[in-house]
Each structure stands twice: as C-alpha cells, then as structure tokens.
Amino acid sequence: MDVAAQIPKCGVLLRHDLDIGLDLAFEMAKLEKAEGIRSTYFVMVSNPLYNVRSKGNIDIIRWLADNDFNVGLHFDPSIYETRDADGLIDYACEEARILSGIAGRNVNALSFHMPSKYGMIQKLGSFQVAYDERYFNDAIYMSDSQMSFRHKKPYEFIHKASERLIQILLHPFFYSISAKDAQLPDLNTAAMLSKLDLVREALATLNLLRGGEFESLAARLTQQTGNVL
Ligand SMILES: [Zn+2]
To answer: Which residue from 61, 141, 165 is spatially nearest to 107, judged by alpha carbons?
Structure first.
C-alpha cells in the first residue's frame, strides 16, 4: 500500500495486519512476490505474541523491505492511557521510528489494531492511515476480519479495482492453521506461569479474531495448568 506520492485513481491497496506473528506473513509475501504482487505488511511493535526485534523477525522485515513490499505500523492504541489522536501521535512516532530502524526505510503507513473496539481514527499526524476516508469506506473496503467477508463477495468486489481504488485487508493467519492444529504451549514452566496475564490476553485476542475458535484451547490450558485462562 505505497501511497506516498500520489494516490492512484484505480487499483488495489492490499494490506496485511500482523496480529499473531511474522512467519505466516513471510510465507504469504513469498507467494505474492511470485505473482508480482506488492502489498503492505503492517507490523506491531507492541504485540504480546511476537518480538519485533527478534533475529528471525528482523530478517523477515528486512526481506519485505528489500523486496519492495511496504512495511507499515500496526498500532495498538489500547496500551496507552489516551485514545485521541493528539495524545497518541508521539507514541505512534516512537513505534514507527523503531520499525523504520529495523526495516531500513521510513515507515509512514499506519493501521489501527481493532479500531471497532478502540476507536476509528482517520488522521494521525503525517501518517498515511489505512482508515483515511480517501481509501476507506464501505464501498471500497473489504476485510476478512473474523474470517468473514461479511456481505461482500471477494471475486466480485475485486472487479471494482478497474475503475476505482479499493482497499483489501487479509490476515495471513486466517489462511494457515486452525485452532485444532495449534500447538499447546508448555505452560508448566515457571517463566510461562509468571506470564499468565499475557497468555490470557493472547487467547482473548485470538478468540476475537477467530470468532471464539480458541475457547476450547483456553479450556484445555485451564485444565492443564489449574489456572483460569
Ligand atoms: Zn490487529
């Protein structure tokens, strides 16, 4: 979603928000590269499930940037004490600086994490916000949130791109494993037990994204650890 200079009149702004990790995004990006597609990968700096500065994730982010994918910031305002744009701008800039340093290029595209829950902000300083009205309204936007395109039909919707600019959000995680195949984390280690709040938050996020699919996993973990998750 490189809209830095001029906004094209038609085409697809293909966007991926990375809520779970980067490994599956890397797989998706390789598929896109083979098809000549260039999209924007929105990476979180404050995600409880992945470390943006781990060696493996740094390698993936650099690979994306080096292969002409756009790297954007997936910003979670809920971790800060303020919800309005004026209060959030410094935090967003700080996170974007971190991501820019990793990507080796300026990060100026931003998408909000769970805007329906934490508020829809359309403008934030000089960031190109994915929810800007120029490329976000019901007629031109389609998302696979909670594994549903709602009332939209992807193969019909895509035809709009020949006449106008549309935005499509796909989460790489939805096109891979299911909760049934998910590995049961080892929660018996002292380190994991000390992070139950984090695990609880991660499971809540997964359930929200996957329409409650992870409730059974939470129940299994509760049984295994004797802690309510
Ligand atoms: Zn998100």
So the answer is: 61
Give the distance (Å) from ligand 1 centre to CA of residue 19: 5
Question: How far, in Å, is the centroid of ligand 1 from the Cα of 144?
Answer: 12
- Residues with CB under 5 Å of ion ligand 1 are 17, 19, 113
pLDDT digits (tens, 9 = 90+) for 192-229: 566 667 677 777 777 777 777 777 777 777 776 676 66
CA of 118 to the centre of ligand 1 (A): 11
207 CA to centre of own chain? 15
pTM over 0.85: no
Cα(205) to centroid(ligand 1), Å = 9
Token representation of residue 138: 């019901």
Burial of 9 (0-12, 13-18, 19+ CB in 10 A): exposed
Q: What is the mean pLDDT of residues 117-124?
A: 84
Q: List the domains of the chain with CATH numbers.
A: 11-175 (3.20.20.370), 179-225 (no CATH)
Q: What is the pLDDT of residues 35-88, one digit of tens each?
A: 999 999 999 999 989 999 999 999 999 999 999 999 999 999 999 998 889 999
Element spanning 102, H or E: helix 85-103
Owner of token pair 């299911």: 178
The DSSP call for residue 186 is -
